[in-house]
Amino acid sequence: MAITAPPIDIGIPADQRQQIADGLGRVLADSTVLYAKTHGFHWNVTGPMFNTLHLMFMDQYTELWTALDLIAERIRALGFPAPYGGTLYAGLSSIPEAEGVPAALAMVRELVEGHEAVARTIRSVFTTADDASDQPTADLLTQRLQIHEKTAWMLRSLLEG
């Protein structure tokens, strides 16, 4: 006997919850691709800045890993399945995969571009969440935006000089 789950009534209509969940799915995909790229760069960075970048990338991918769960759980709280899988993420993400193993500063440049891309994706979802008075999603997006903008700034600082 199949059990039907009760409808969700959290004060946000189903169509708005779907739009927010779809947007969060894009944020999740961008964040997952950026996580994988950052982790891969951590493994493969070489050169005079090895130790600095190796440790910095580790801090960044660890932070991203934790964020993936928060984003996916918010999608679930809105009543929708969280997207997963490489093919699905490739279709949803605005961040391209790295080609080969770039030089250390090229890695930094790619990560700057990745964090900026996630920030743009977050901004595109924020209005939908705000219009729906979805404060938990808006709060999550605000926190994520702050982290991605700060990380992009820190990485850009390595490229100056």
Automatic annotation (TrEMBL):
Pfam families, alphabetized: Ferritin
InterPro entries xrefs: DPS_DNA-bd, Ferritin-like, Ferritin-like_SF, Ferritin_DPS_dom
Every Ferritin/DPS domain range: 23-160
SUPFAM superfamilies documented for this protein: Ferritin-like (SSF47240)
Spans traversing the lipid bilayer: none
Stated family: Belongs to the Dps family.
UniProt xrefs under PANTHER family: DNA PROTECTION DURING STARVATION PROTEIN, GENERAL STRESS PROTEIN 20U
Name of the protein described by the UniProt record: DNA starvation/stationary phase protection protein
Provenance organism: Aphanothece cf. minutissima CCALA 015
